[in-house]
Write a structure and sequence with these properties.
InterPro entries: Ribbon_hlx_hlx (IPR010985)
Number of strands: 2
Strand content: 5-15%
Protein name: Ribbon-helix-helix domain-containing protein
Shape: elongated
Organism: Streptomyces subrutilus
Strand order of the largest sheet: 1-2
Oligomer: single chain
Largest sheet: 2 strands, antiparallel
């Protein structure tokens, strides 16, 4: 007789203080006190956590589509004078 199989649990499982959604890595960084206080204040003002804020900013920095978009803006800015001259305000 085979052991019973448990059905997949579709919701996050609480384990201690951590919500397990997917496997993730812990990263330790060192911040000076002033920077950490500023980071906590910004996260609180945005209604999020320090971890979520750092994750969001890091993901945004690594987003290749965003980099392509920003480089397109720079190219457009280089030709802004011509655009205004040709098409007006």
């Amino acid at each position: 007789m085979s052991p019973p199989t448990l059905p997949a649990f579709p919701y996050p499982v609480q384990q201690g203080r951590c919500t397990v959604l997917d496997m993730s890595r812990h990263v330790t960084i060192r911040l000076d006190e002033d920077f950490h206080e500023r980071l906590k204040a910004r996260a609180a003002a945005l209604g999020t956590t320090v971890t979520a804020l750092i994750t969001e900013v890091t993901e945004r920095e690594l987003d290749e589509d965003r980099k392509d978009f920003l480089s397109g803006i720079e190219e457009f800015a280089d030709h802004w004078g011509y655009f205004q001259e040709r098409f007006g305000n």
